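Project outcomes to date are best conveyed with an example. Our students and postdoctoral researchers have been running inverse folding experiments weekly, and each run begins with a structure described purely in C-alpha coordinates. The record below, which covers 266 residues, was selected by the lab manager from last quarter's runs and is presented without edits.
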Protein backbone atom coordinates (compact mmCIF):
# COMPACT_ATOMS: atom_id res chain seq x y z
CA UNK A 1 0.00 0.00 0.00
CA UNK A 2 2.88 2.39 0.76
CA UNK A 3 5.00 1.53 -2.28
CA UNK A 4 5.44 4.80 -4.15
CA UNK A 5 4.93 4.92 -7.89
CA UNK A 6 5.85 7.83 -10.12
CA UNK A 7 3.08 9.98 -8.66
CA UNK A 8 1.80 8.48 -5.44
CA UNK A 9 0.90 5.25 -3.66
CA UNK A 10 -2.23 3.12 -3.23
CA UNK A 11 -2.50 4.43 0.32
CA UNK A 12 -2.63 8.01 -0.99
CA UNK A 13 -5.17 7.04 -3.66
CA UNK A 14 -7.42 5.45 -1.02
CA UNK A 15 -7.17 8.61 1.08
CA UNK A 16 -8.36 10.52 -2.00
CA UNK A 17 -11.47 8.35 -2.29
CA UNK A 18 -10.47 5.32 -4.36
CA UNK A 19 -12.00 1.99 -3.30
CA UNK A 20 -8.87 0.07 -2.36
CA UNK A 21 -9.12 -2.77 0.15
CA UNK A 22 -6.62 -4.98 1.93
CA UNK A 23 -7.45 -8.71 1.71
CA UNK A 24 -5.89 -11.78 3.28
CA UNK A 25 -5.82 -13.85 0.10
CA UNK A 26 -6.40 -13.59 -3.66
CA UNK A 27 -9.44 -15.80 -3.07
CA UNK A 28 -10.94 -12.91 -1.09
CA UNK A 29 -10.75 -10.96 -4.34
CA UNK A 30 -12.68 -13.72 -6.13
CA UNK A 31 -15.32 -13.62 -3.38
CA UNK A 32 -15.60 -9.83 -3.78
CA UNK A 33 -16.15 -10.30 -7.52
CA UNK A 34 -18.90 -12.86 -6.84
CA UNK A 35 -20.66 -10.47 -4.44
CA UNK A 36 -20.32 -7.49 -6.78
CA UNK A 37 -21.10 -8.72 -10.31
CA UNK A 38 -21.64 -5.15 -11.57
CA UNK A 39 -18.13 -4.00 -10.55
CA UNK A 40 -14.66 -4.92 -11.77
CA UNK A 41 -12.42 -6.22 -8.97
CA UNK A 42 -8.70 -5.79 -9.67
CA UNK A 43 -6.17 -7.80 -7.67
CA UNK A 44 -2.50 -6.75 -7.98
CA UNK A 45 -0.55 -9.99 -8.40
CA UNK A 46 2.82 -9.19 -6.83
CA UNK A 47 5.62 -11.16 -5.25
CA UNK A 48 7.75 -14.07 -6.35
CA UNK A 49 7.22 -17.80 -6.86
CA UNK A 50 5.88 -18.08 -3.30
CA UNK A 51 2.78 -15.96 -4.05
CA UNK A 52 2.26 -16.61 -7.78
CA UNK A 53 0.62 -20.06 -7.35
CA UNK A 54 -2.15 -18.64 -5.13
CA UNK A 55 -2.83 -15.84 -7.62
CA UNK A 56 -2.91 -18.41 -10.45
CA UNK A 57 -5.35 -20.50 -8.40
CA UNK A 58 -7.61 -17.46 -7.97
CA UNK A 59 -7.78 -17.02 -11.75
CA UNK A 60 -8.65 -20.70 -12.20
CA UNK A 61 -11.39 -20.36 -9.57
CA UNK A 62 -12.77 -17.22 -11.25
CA UNK A 63 -12.80 -19.11 -14.56
CA UNK A 64 -14.74 -22.01 -13.02
CA UNK A 65 -17.26 -19.58 -11.51
CA UNK A 66 -17.38 -17.54 -14.77
CA UNK A 67 -16.51 -14.33 -12.94
CA UNK A 68 -15.21 -12.20 -15.77
CA UNK A 69 -15.29 -9.16 -13.48
CA UNK A 70 -12.30 -10.53 -11.52
CA UNK A 71 -9.07 -9.14 -12.98
CA UNK A 72 -5.43 -9.58 -12.05
CA UNK A 73 -2.73 -6.99 -12.69
CA UNK A 74 0.19 -9.39 -13.06
CA UNK A 75 3.47 -8.11 -11.63
CA UNK A 76 5.10 -11.34 -10.47
CA UNK A 77 8.85 -11.85 -10.67
CA UNK A 78 11.00 -14.97 -10.46
CA UNK A 79 14.20 -15.29 -8.45
CA UNK A 80 16.71 -17.49 -10.39
CA UNK A 81 17.06 -15.03 -13.31
CA UNK A 82 17.73 -12.14 -10.93
CA UNK A 83 20.29 -14.20 -9.03
CA UNK A 84 21.91 -15.12 -12.34
CA UNK A 85 22.17 -11.41 -13.18
CA UNK A 86 23.81 -10.68 -9.82
CA UNK A 87 26.20 -13.59 -10.21
CA UNK A 88 27.32 -12.24 -13.60
CA UNK A 89 27.85 -8.72 -12.22
CA UNK A 90 31.65 -8.33 -11.84
CA UNK A 91 31.46 -5.44 -9.34
CA UNK A 92 29.11 -7.35 -7.03
CA UNK A 93 31.84 -9.82 -5.92
CA UNK A 94 29.33 -12.29 -4.46
CA UNK A 95 30.90 -14.96 -2.22
CA UNK A 96 27.73 -17.00 -1.76
CA UNK A 97 23.94 -16.94 -1.88
CA UNK A 98 21.54 -17.42 1.02
CA UNK A 99 18.67 -18.62 -1.18
CA UNK A 100 15.08 -17.48 -0.47
CA UNK A 101 13.20 -19.94 1.74
CA UNK A 102 9.57 -19.50 0.66
CA UNK A 103 10.54 -19.35 -3.02
CA UNK A 104 12.64 -22.49 -2.59
CA UNK A 105 9.67 -24.32 -1.07
CA UNK A 106 8.01 -23.90 -4.50
CA UNK A 107 10.87 -24.19 -7.01
CA UNK A 108 13.10 -26.60 -5.03
CA UNK A 109 16.84 -26.51 -4.39
CA UNK A 110 17.71 -27.97 -7.80
CA UNK A 111 16.71 -24.64 -9.36
CA UNK A 112 19.99 -23.16 -8.05
CA UNK A 113 22.28 -25.84 -9.50
CA UNK A 114 23.11 -23.78 -12.63
CA UNK A 115 24.22 -20.88 -10.39
CA UNK A 116 26.61 -23.06 -8.44
CA UNK A 117 27.92 -24.90 -11.49
CA UNK A 118 28.14 -22.04 -14.01
CA UNK A 119 29.38 -19.27 -11.70
CA UNK A 120 31.04 -21.39 -9.01
CA UNK A 121 29.09 -19.61 -6.26
CA UNK A 122 28.04 -21.58 -3.13
CA UNK A 123 24.28 -21.62 -2.46
CA UNK A 124 22.52 -22.50 0.79
CA UNK A 125 18.75 -22.45 1.38
CA UNK A 126 18.00 -21.40 4.96
CA UNK A 127 14.99 -20.85 7.17
CA UNK A 128 14.08 -17.58 8.88
CA UNK A 129 15.10 -18.17 12.48
CA UNK A 130 18.41 -16.67 13.66
CA UNK A 131 19.85 -20.16 14.19
CA UNK A 132 18.81 -21.11 10.63
CA UNK A 133 20.62 -18.13 9.14
CA UNK A 134 23.71 -18.61 11.30
CA UNK A 135 23.96 -22.24 10.29
CA UNK A 136 23.45 -21.26 6.65
CA UNK A 137 26.32 -18.76 6.86
CA UNK A 138 28.52 -21.43 8.45
CA UNK A 139 27.67 -23.84 5.61
CA UNK A 140 28.61 -21.17 3.05
CA UNK A 141 31.91 -20.47 4.81
CA UNK A 142 32.75 -24.18 4.91
CA UNK A 143 32.19 -24.36 1.14
CA UNK A 144 34.41 -21.31 0.53
CA UNK A 145 37.22 -22.72 2.71
CA UNK A 146 37.01 -26.05 0.87
CA UNK A 147 36.91 -24.30 -2.53
CA UNK A 148 33.53 -25.87 -3.28
CA UNK A 149 30.43 -24.46 -4.96
CA UNK A 150 27.34 -26.57 -4.45
CA UNK A 151 23.72 -26.23 -3.38
CA UNK A 152 23.00 -27.18 0.23
CA UNK A 153 19.68 -27.22 2.05
CA UNK A 154 19.66 -26.09 5.68
CA UNK A 155 15.84 -25.74 5.59
CA UNK A 156 15.12 -29.42 5.00
CA UNK A 157 12.09 -29.37 7.28
CA UNK A 158 10.26 -27.32 4.62
CA UNK A 159 12.21 -27.30 1.34
CA UNK A 160 12.68 -30.32 -0.95
CA UNK A 161 14.94 -30.83 -3.96
CA UNK A 162 12.03 -30.70 -6.42
CA UNK A 163 9.95 -28.17 -4.45
CA UNK A 164 6.16 -28.21 -4.80
CA UNK A 165 5.23 -29.70 -8.17
CA UNK A 166 1.49 -29.00 -7.74
CA UNK A 167 2.11 -25.30 -7.08
CA UNK A 168 4.40 -25.05 -10.12
CA UNK A 169 1.82 -26.85 -12.25
CA UNK A 170 -0.90 -24.34 -11.30
CA UNK A 171 1.50 -21.46 -11.88
CA UNK A 172 2.55 -22.65 -15.35
CA UNK A 173 -1.07 -23.32 -16.29
CA UNK A 174 -1.90 -19.62 -15.91
CA UNK A 175 1.41 -17.75 -16.38
CA UNK A 176 4.26 -17.71 -18.90
CA UNK A 177 7.70 -16.08 -18.49
CA UNK A 178 8.26 -12.56 -19.80
CA UNK A 179 10.89 -9.83 -19.67
CA UNK A 180 10.42 -7.73 -16.55
CA UNK A 181 11.55 -4.39 -15.16
CA UNK A 182 13.07 -4.42 -11.66
CA UNK A 183 13.06 -1.11 -9.83
CA UNK A 184 16.59 0.09 -9.32
CA UNK A 185 18.03 -2.50 -11.72
CA UNK A 186 16.23 -2.41 -15.08
CA UNK A 187 15.01 -5.12 -17.45
CA UNK A 188 15.94 -8.72 -16.66
CA UNK A 189 14.94 -11.01 -19.58
CA UNK A 190 12.58 -13.87 -18.68
CA UNK A 191 12.34 -12.84 -15.03
CA UNK A 192 8.64 -11.97 -14.93
CA UNK A 193 5.34 -13.79 -15.29
CA UNK A 194 2.46 -12.69 -17.50
CA UNK A 195 -1.01 -14.19 -17.91
CA UNK A 196 -1.44 -16.66 -20.75
CA UNK A 197 -3.59 -15.71 -23.73
CA UNK A 198 -6.11 -18.42 -22.80
CA UNK A 199 -6.86 -16.47 -19.59
CA UNK A 200 -6.63 -13.00 -21.15
CA UNK A 201 -10.16 -12.10 -19.99
CA UNK A 202 -8.76 -11.99 -16.43
CA UNK A 203 -5.78 -9.81 -17.42
CA UNK A 204 -6.33 -6.26 -16.15
CA UNK A 205 -3.78 -4.87 -18.61
CA UNK A 206 -5.77 -6.22 -21.55
CA UNK A 207 -9.29 -5.71 -20.15
CA UNK A 208 -8.93 -2.09 -19.03
CA UNK A 209 -7.87 0.62 -21.53
CA UNK A 210 -5.88 2.64 -18.99
CA UNK A 211 -3.00 4.84 -20.10
CA UNK A 212 -0.16 4.22 -17.65
CA UNK A 213 2.29 7.02 -17.06
CA UNK A 214 5.94 6.37 -17.78
CA UNK A 215 7.84 5.16 -14.75
CA UNK A 216 10.49 7.50 -13.49
CA UNK A 217 13.45 6.43 -11.41
CA UNK A 218 13.94 8.69 -8.40
CA UNK A 219 16.95 10.94 -8.90
CA UNK A 220 19.72 10.28 -6.43
CA UNK A 221 18.35 6.90 -5.31
CA UNK A 222 21.07 4.24 -5.47
CA UNK A 223 18.91 1.27 -4.52
CA UNK A 224 20.10 -0.62 -7.61
CA UNK A 225 23.71 -0.41 -6.42
CA UNK A 226 22.63 -1.53 -2.93
CA UNK A 227 20.75 -4.50 -4.40
CA UNK A 228 23.80 -5.45 -6.47
CA UNK A 229 26.08 -5.23 -3.42
CA UNK A 230 28.16 -2.41 -4.90
CA UNK A 231 27.54 0.00 -2.01
CA UNK A 232 26.15 -0.04 1.55
CA UNK A 233 22.83 1.76 2.25
CA UNK A 234 24.74 4.46 4.18
CA UNK A 235 26.53 5.39 0.93
CA UNK A 236 23.29 6.51 -0.74
CA UNK A 237 22.90 10.31 -0.57
CA UNK A 238 19.15 10.04 0.13
CA UNK A 239 19.47 7.59 3.03
CA UNK A 240 17.98 8.84 6.30
CA UNK A 241 17.15 12.29 4.92
CA UNK A 242 14.83 12.25 1.91
CA UNK A 243 14.40 8.46 2.14
CA UNK A 244 13.03 6.95 5.38
CA UNK A 245 10.61 4.09 6.17
CA UNK A 246 7.86 6.73 6.63
CA UNK A 247 8.66 8.28 3.25
CA UNK A 248 10.44 5.59 1.20
CA UNK A 249 11.98 6.64 -2.10
CA UNK A 250 13.40 3.34 -3.28
CA UNK A 251 12.33 -0.31 -2.97
CA UNK A 252 15.19 -1.01 -0.52
CA UNK A 253 13.45 1.25 2.01
CA UNK A 254 9.82 0.33 1.20
CA UNK A 255 9.86 -3.20 2.57
CA UNK A 256 10.53 -3.93 6.23
CA UNK A 257 12.82 -6.67 4.85
CA UNK A 258 14.71 -4.20 2.63
CA UNK A 259 18.37 -3.61 3.35
CA UNK A 260 17.97 0.18 3.65
CA UNK A 261 15.04 -0.20 6.07
CA UNK A 262 17.10 -2.65 8.15
CA UNK A 263 20.04 -0.23 8.29
CA UNK A 264 17.72 2.64 9.21
CA UNK A 265 15.99 0.75 12.03
CA UNK A 266 18.96 -1.09 13.51
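After processing, the design step wrote out the following sequence:
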Amino acid sequence: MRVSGSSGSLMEERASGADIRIVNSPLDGVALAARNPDRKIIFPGIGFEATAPAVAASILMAARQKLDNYLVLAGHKTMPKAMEMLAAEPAASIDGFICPAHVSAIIGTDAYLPLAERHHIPCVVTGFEPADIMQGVEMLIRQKIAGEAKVENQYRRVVKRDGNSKAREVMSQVFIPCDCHWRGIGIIPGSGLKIRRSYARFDAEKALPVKVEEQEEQKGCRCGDVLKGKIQPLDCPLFGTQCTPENPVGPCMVSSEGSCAAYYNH
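The chain has three domains: 10-78+165-207, 79-153, 223-265. Residues 10-78+165-207 form a domain with the Rossmann fold fold (CATH 3.40.50.11740). The training component of this project remains on track.
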